Amino acid sequence: MLPANLIRLAENVNALSREHGLMIATAESCTGGIVAGALTEIAGSSSVLDRGFVTYSNEAKQEMLGVDRALIDTHGAVSEEVARAMADGALEHSNAGLAVSITGIAGPGGATASKPVGLVWFGVARTGQAVRTFREEFGELGRSQVRERAALTALGLLKEAF
């Protein structure tokens, strides 16, 4: 069951999506579909969510979203550049007018000196606008908490994008 605060925020995003006539696409890595799941928890979400891409592997990011392998090799999957490409790819491979991407390190492993556990990059793409990126460091809260906070942040970014 999803937390109530996540559902409330998803309800707000769904209402704004209907009001503005913009379908949404999600491109999720470390959240594994939590954002799309929250949006679809609300009845009538088929008029809001076009599709959700769960692109956990680097290959999925390339195949489903068109992320260039060179970006991943050069900057890593958890990077501003890949978050930007994921959001842009979600728009390009959907019928949505607004997309959010999430790529991060939920832990407990996978961290490096420059990319700690809890680091998450987000991208927000809207048709006709430049992709905006955001970086959050949630810290070592535990895997579930990092994923939940990343999903809340992604929904908040969608809300602000309207």
In a nutshell, what does this entry contain?
The chain is of the alpha/beta class and 162 residues long. It has helices spanning 4-20, 34-40, 58-65, 69-75, 80-92, 143-161, and strands spanning 24-28, 49-54, 98-104, 119-126, 132-137. It has a single domain, classed as Alpha-Beta Complex (Maf protein), CATH 3.90.950.20.
Describe the 3D structure.
Residues 8-161 form the CinA C-terminal domain. Pfam families: CinA. Helices cover 44% and strands 20% of the residues. It has a five-stranded mixed sheet, sandwiched between helices. Helix 1 (4-20) packs parallel to helix 6. The two termini are 27 Å apart. Strand 4 and strand 5 (132-137) form a beta hairpin. It has one domain: Alpha-Beta Complex (Maf protein), CATH 3.90.950.20. It has six helices and five strands; from the N terminus they run αβαβαααβββα. The protein is an alpha/beta fold.
